[in-house]
Design a protein that fits this description.
The complex is a heterodimer of chains A (209) and B (282). Helices cover 72% and strands 0% of the residues of chain A. Chain A is mostly helical. Chain A is globular.
């Protein structure tokens, strides 16, 4: 993640945020372009579901449009944006629990999204077999993440994939930093057990990195 | 660090969010407690495994800008700005003119612009000119004559200066050239003498060498010639002698043979006189 042009641009988007806060629609549009992928991936890892991730992403940025003028500190934009995303994730979770509906994805995870997966994965790795194995491993790890509690999953995703500092995660979730660290610890510990149960180790996956 | 770090500290250590001092303390603790460090390493391995989750590519939806709030006002239009620029320039010119105080006058096809002083145009009466054509001609002639005089004077001065310079240069150069020629001629006579002497010496030496070589060769040649001639004479004499001996021996053989034949004929005649008679009768 780190080191890409997109990340660098995101780290230096203070001017954009200031302009967006002052009502510059163009700056707001650019912020969406910069942050959409990150929020989508956060939500995708949280739900392991493309549609829900898209839903949460769109709602997050509509909310950002409406409320960015109330943002107090530019430096807290990142945690503020993740706060909105987390809230919408939780909202979607509540809806799913209430409706008790079962998505096709849950029935045959990964298969109804073949076209999406194909489009998302092509062109990055030359070896198709290796790409297939990588995709399978990725899906497997996503399923392991889903076995964590919602609170632990939020923290692990924010830390591992979004690169937030513990302080920023605490701000986004509006809890103490120690609580975040504790959830992270138990999250990793829980994942360790899940991976052991599923016999996923560096050795079994033919670790090539 | 003897106290066991809590979970929060361990997490902050693993993700590099501790200060250097705190990080060292945690590190020291784990050095002292390697078993616990192994457990922590398992968490690190989990973290490493999690990095295998792929990032999903997604295209951000297009954002449509609401331009209602940015409707262009009349004073933001280009034409208005251009007009205002011209007006401002003109106003600036007027203010500057007011401060500087220009005075513009036009008369008889002349425009005169002056600052801080009224423009005055001198009127000239064409019917009453100040100078007549003859006077003007005289003035021109006088000026030309003066100019010519000045030119002649200047030319003469330049000429004199030039001649004096040439003369001086000639005198100094001729003296130098004479000295150089003298030195050169002196040097040449000595050189010629030495050159001729050396040439004569060389010629003499070469002639001597040539004659010496020539006489030696001729001497050797004559000697060789005499030796060859004497050898030739000896050989010739030897061959003549051999020829003479051969002839003599041949004559001697012939004489002996003739003698023997004569004796044999006489013997036959003596031994058979009848046969000799018959033969004569035939």
């Amino acid at each position: 993640m780190a080191g890409t042009l997109l990340d660098i641009a995101m780290m230096h988007s203070d001017t954009l945020i200031i302009r967006a806060r002052e009502g510059d629609k163009n700056a707001q549009g650019k912020l969406v372009q910069l942050w959409y992928k990150r929020i989508y991936n956060f939500a995708y890892k949280f739900f392991f579901d493309h549609d829900l991730a898209m839903e949460v992403s769109q709602k997050t940025f509509i909310s950002m449009y409406r409320h960015i003028e109330s943002l107090q500190e530019v430096a807290r934009f990142r945690s503020w944006l993740y706060t909105i995303a987390v809230n919408y994730c939780r909202e979607e979770l509540r809806k799913r629990k209430t409706n008790r509906s079962v998505s096709l994805h849950d029935l045959r995870p990964g298969e109804q999204e073949d076209s999406y997966h194909w489009e998302a994965s092509t062109g990055r790795v030359d070896n198709p077999e290796r790409q297939l194995r990588q995709t399978e491993l990725s899906d497997l790890l996503q399923q392991c993440l889903l076995e964590l509690s919602d609170e632990q999953r939020e923290v692990v995703i924010m830390k591992e994939y979004e690169g937030l500092k513990f302080r920023e995660i605490a701000e986004a979730l509006q809890i103490s930093e120690n609580t975040v660290k504790s959830r992270m610890y138990y999250g990793l510990d829980g994942l360790k057990r899940i991976l052991e149960r599923r016999n996923i180790t560096k050795e079994t996956i033919g670790y090539e990195q | 660090m003897n106290n066991k770090p809590d979970q929060g500290t361990i997490m902050a250590y693993l993700y590099g969010e501790l200060s250097a001092k705190e990080a060292n303390q945690v590190k020291d603790y784990f050095i002292q407690h390697p078993d616990e460090w192994k457990q922590i390493q398992q968490l690190t391995e989990v973290s490493d495994l999690l990095k295998n989750v792929e990032e999903k590519e997604v295209i951000a939806p297009p954002v449509f800008m609401d331009h209602a709030g940015h409707a262009s006002r009349f004073w933001q239009s280009g034409a208005f700005k251009t007009m205002m620029s011209i007006a401002a320039t003109f106003l600036l010119f007027l203010v500057a003119a007011r401060l500087i105080g220009p005075d513009i006058a036009y008369s008889n096809g002349e425009v005169r612009i002056s600052f801080n002083a009224p423009a005055k145009i001198e009127k000239v009466d064409p019917s009453n000119p100040a100078l007549t054509p003859i006077e003007v001609q005289q003035m021109i002639n006088t000026a030309l004559a003066e100019n010519n005089q000045a030119l002649v004077t200047e030319w003469e001065q330049n000429n004199q200066q030039l001649q004096a310079t040439i003369k001086n240069n000639f005198v100094s150069n001729s003296a130098k050239i004479d000295a150089l020629m003298k030195q050169t001629s002196q040097a040449s006579q000595d050189q010629i003498r030495s050159f001729v002497a050396s040439l004569q010496q060389e010629n003499l030496q070469s002639m001597k060498d040539y004659l010496q070589l020539s006489s030696n060769d001729q001497k050797a040649y004559v000697e060789n010639l005499l030796v060859d001639f004497s050898k030739y004479l000896q050989e010739q004499r030897k061959q003549d002698l051999q020829l003479f001996q051969t002839r003599m021996s041949s004559i001697e053989k012939n004489t002996d043979q003739f003698k023997q034949e004569t004796e044999q004929i006489l013997a036959n005649i003596i031994s058979n006189p009848e046969n000799f008679k018959k033969v004569n009768n035939y």
